[in-house]
Amino acid sequence: MSKEKINERAEELLKLIGLFDASERKAKGYSGGMLRQLNLIVALINEPRILFLDEPTVGMDPRVRRTTWDFINSLKSQDRTIILTTHYIEEAEVLCDRVAIIDYGKLVALDTPKKLMEEHQAKNLEEVFLKITGRRILEGI
């Protein structure tokens, strides 16, 4: 990819995620949430077909987290596979088409959020996790 194409792509992504107004600032002046968003942009510059996101919204305030969720959801329509790790149950419910629950390195459940909740007669994935493992999510972190 040419330098010009990289710059165009970076500008496009900065606008989409809402960081364009801060693009002239040095990154060391960014908040933690802004740095997480910048990491996401850097990962997308070369338009990968598979994207691994490890705790993409840790440290973000609720408004920025929602903006980032909207951005990640927009990527789903672009023929990409996104593998996301999170301890935020609501994030998994909002962003994931399929959820794998891993407990102490062992896969204990894999399905859509809706089917997992139906199967375990739960109103959210936190309850599913509790029923499967006997522990609350925060106890496992």
Fold and architecture overview:
By secondary structure, this protein is of the alpha+beta class. The chain folds into two domains: 1-85, P-loop containing nucleotide triphosphate hydrolases (Rossmann fold); 92-141, no CATH class. The protein has helices at 3-17, 32-44, 62-75, 89-95, 113-119, 125-133, and strands at residues 50-54, 81-85, 99-103, 106-111. The protein has a two-stranded parallel sheet. It has a two-stranded antiparallel sheet with strand order 3-4. Helix 1 crosses helix 2. The longest helix is centred in the first third of the chain and has 15 residues, at 3-17. The termini are far apart. The mean pLDDT is 89.
Brief description of this entry?
This protein is 46% helix and 15% strand. With 141 residues, it is an alpha+beta fold.
- CATH topology descriptor of the largest domain: Rossmann fold
Gyration radius (Cα, Å) is 17 Å
What kind of sheet is the major sheet? 2 strands, parallel
Per DSSP, the total helix count is 6
Largest sheet, order of strands side by side? Answer: 1-2
Runs with pLDDT <50, length 5+?
A: none
**Can you give the helix content as a percent range?**
40-55%
Q: Quickly give the CATH architecture of the largest domain.
A: 3-Layer(aba) Sandwich
Measured between the Cα atoms of the first and last residue, the distance is: 40 Å
| Helix-and-strand structural type | alpha+beta
CATH class term of the largest domain: Alpha Beta
- Looking at this structure, what is the CATH superfamily of the largest domain? P-loop containing nucleotide triphosphate hydrolases
Query: Which shape, going by the Cα principal axes?
Result: elongated
How many structural domains?
Answer: 2
Q: Give the topology string: H per helix, E per strand.
A: HHEHEHEEHH
Strand content: 5-15%
What kind of oligomer do you see? single chain
The count of β-strands is 4
User: Mean of residue pLDDT?
Assistant: 89
